[in-house]
Amino acid sequence: MPQPAQQQSPPGVTAAMEPIANMCASLAQMLAPKGIRANSVAPGPIWTPLIPSTMPEEKVEGFGEQAPLERPGQPAELAPVYVMLASDEASYVSGARIAVTGGNPIL
Predict the structure, then answer these.
(1) What is the count of structural domains for the chain?
(2) What is the pTM of this model?
């Protein structure tokens, strides 16, 4: 069975994500004895009012369509992840990287 094409992140995005994930994992281990949790959120294409002013119009029209859900996320779909991480319900979550990517895996 053919596999879906993997989404390729721009090199700078991938290069920036790994150090953040590593720092978060290290902080989670170092700060756990003090009761401090450290987590990160890896957003995919999220529509904001800045999108039209930061890229050519032809790219704006297709922004987010490369995600498996075939659309960009909305800030209201990303915000609950931060709220959950700050809540008591996430008291045992530390060192996690949560992908809000419209279905693109983060590895």
Answers:
(1) 1
(2) 0.78
